[in-house]
């Protein structure tokens, strides 16, 4: 009875597991059908399970056949009383020998499941092998195309490991059976070890040796990833000692395998032992001892001369793998003779100086424009738009819904509070008289104050914080946005989500999410749709997990709709001679991913159709990628050089800008990322997007910039720009300063700011009065043949989260000044040389909302109290006067 109950429980658990797995597979199929990528889903699913089934069958048959060959020996182990074909294995039990195949099959199946459970994870390596593409470049050692290492070698390594594991498992299992059945026999005056299993064991051990020979062959190719030498990749010792040793071991393994095959007929048991010991000894001598002797006696006494050609290989292939060989090098002739004519020529640069640092701006946006506690700005993005016909850099952020901040009733979370709403857009270089940002787009519903921008679909159903599933088109009106003392509601009109109107679908989704209310809710209608996997990051990865994604997706406003753009990379860790960086040693930005924030549609645009990894993936998934030409023109205007790729290239270029192997060997010209001060901490300068006019160019453009300094030095030696606009997209330019010219680095400018008595005194004074000074990004701005430095200064009260941009520091040559505005600082720097310089005028006078006026009034009142406690009566008077002005505006606005 107990056995029967146990069987029922096991069967029930298996059935429940099967139902849940099949349910998830079916719902995932519906999800992929919604986003129009069923081919990707089916290709992945079929390949994964196909690999599992094939490897299981191969493993199963091999183990099963080998067990059948040991049938008689197992009988001897189990036999206590033999009666023809019946074996008594327990006091009350008798086992028929005819059942052995069945028991062998069960044992083989269990072992196969255990040992092949990993194989499905190699489905992509197998698909890449079958659909491989050439790189068109050969390695310098074996003269094989790079595609062999990227697409074929990983497959061969998987196949080798699988076969070796299968044969080794069989060998160990068979050895144990033979050893237990009859381990030692004394014949004719000598001991005979495992006398009855020598043929079987010889054959299996021969297979192991043949596989080891293949393994040595694969190890030869793996020498191109050796870390032994002074540079990554095959070194002198690897080529002149390790490689010959592996070739010898290859032939030794083949020879020993043949000898073991012959032993099937010769029956010399010592061959088994000698072959095993001989290969281990040869591996130690040829694989470790000999290379170590060569390294110490031949390489180290004359290291550079021995390693020179291999250093050259490392430099060439590392630069190729990271795209560093495409960097254009130009000399930036520093003259420090900036004139009024130069200033006028570079007005486009001055009109877009990024005064607003994204970190304090996020806090300011949150205080002024989140409107309600359940809205949140997750991050600040930088982009460029034509505002009133002028090319302007802006900072923008979407107002997402934070579901953790709403009432947690089921109807609220799943049916009513379904989406975020709207966005804010601010110019990077404009502030109000109170030190707050000017807004081109603000408020709820969106108020647009700039020509060239429009918002028609402000609802955000798919974003960076949309982690929960929701159901739309129900009987419950969806909350859209707060409206005075009431709320505005809406009904979803898009195509996103999966139909959930019928009972069967509701039951399946209830099982998927463990939420019975999906089944019993009376608010779900036949038109209702369920949206899940709405987070754009997980949504994109679910479709294409084989791509690597940039850490910063950014929002784009195009024709009144909101879209997310995320850069995707094709990578590998199998590029020969290329130095690894955080687990990869090859990267290309081959794909741009676009997600509609309203409908959730996902499009993968192939921006580099000739890139071999992307080309291979296109063969595997023909429907995944769209040609870049099909991307809407409005979205093309907002693609940008990816920041993560730029950071990786910048880090690698600190060393790999050195092309001379002697200079590289001695690290004579090593660079580093310079340091800056932010909020009192010294940190590396981050790459930053800005609109500047590059030398020898006639128009300003959107670029990603990074300055460089010599290692352990504070001066600046060069700067690099990643171009983002039009036909120049993707080009990298490095501007090198002449070595006989001193160019201040960011840390030196920061030190000069600290050393300026007036600036330092003022900053110290603000820090001591209940406020915190935040020094923003130090911007390095090339203009004509000069370098201008700009650093914004923010002030934030200790009890406030509303940073204000109160000063701008400008440094040029030996002059450092701090003024209220950029134009005042520029005019002071060039006193007596230039007529007054005016930066881009505001689009229009900023009209603050009632909520913003209340926030500012509270902030001014708090500051007035702080000034009063400190005895700063002049400051107290200024705060009260400003407060009266704000209260007057509030009174006027409430009368409207």
UniProtKB/TrEMBL annotation:
InterPro entries noted in UniProt: UPF0182
Transmembrane segments: 5-26, 46-69, 102-124, 158-180, 201-218, 248-266, 271-290
Swiss-Prot/TrEMBL keywords: Cell membrane, Membrane, Transmembrane, Transmembrane helix
Organism domain of life: Bacteria
Bilayer topology term: Multi-pass membrane protein
GO CC term (a single one): plasma membrane
Compartment(s) where it occurs, according to its Swiss-Prot or TrEMBL record: Cell membrane
Family membership noted in the UniProt record: Belongs to the UPF0182 family.
Designated name of the protein: UPF0182 protein H0A61_00084
Native source species: Koleobacter methoxysyntrophicus
